[in-house]
Amino acid sequence: MNANEQPDGILLDLIRYAMNIATVVGGLVLVAGLLVIMVVRANPASGPSPGGEQASQAVPAPTEAPAAGEPAEPEAPEAPSPGLLALGEEVFVNQGCGACHTIEGVAQGVVGPALTNMGAVAGGRAGEAGVADAEAYVRQSIVEPNAYTVEECPTGACAPGVMPANFGDVLSEEELDALVEYLLVQEGGG
């Protein structure tokens, strides 16, 4: 045995050991970063405001009951929970929706219509299609994608038969509900 062989073997073992430690530490840092992002997205109002003060929860002012004979104003729909929206985004990403559809800051699809502004346009599209409401329109567009074909896709007119028609079978009811709510809160530009 050569005298140079043993130190080289030890040196290689040390390098492998250091690389394994670096991989584990890098993975832990990545996981910690993702957890921080999830917590901030789930509760953005809990952090300090730009002025340094803790954000406070707004308490709605009490409203008076309508006088007799006056119509009552419809109640605003309850906002979806952050957990439901996180699941909706997870479904959007994990089911590959972003390969075709764009949501600004999430995915840059190149085939299907952009969904960045879905929450703002779904109600109008529902009315044009004769559907009860925006939620029903989005839900049916997912489970029966050929029921409504919008005109604008990144490459021109949207073609029927491109989107998979099996999401009603593939997604659980909870996943479908979450995806619908996630798309309905998309009210960005575009």
CATH superfamily of the largest domain, by name, is Cytochrome c-like domain
> Which architecture name of the largest domain does CATH use?
Orthogonal Bundle
**What's the end-to-end separation, in Å?**
71 Å
Poorly predicted runs of 5 or more residues: 44-61
What does the oligomeric state look like here?
A: single chain
- What is the CATH level 1 assignment of the largest domain? Mainly Alpha
The largest sheet is: 2 strands, antiparallel
Structural class: mainly alpha
What's the number of structural domains? 2
Strand order of the largest sheet: 1-2
Shape: elongated
Average predicted local confidence, pLDDT: 78
Secondary-structure element pattern, one letter each:
HHHHEEHH
Report the helical percentage.
40-55%
User: What's the helix count?
Assistant: 6
- What is the beta-strand fraction? under 5%
The overall strand count is: 2
The CATH topology of the largest domain is Cytochrome Bc1 Complex, Chain D, domain 2
Q: What is the radius of gyration?
A: 25 Å
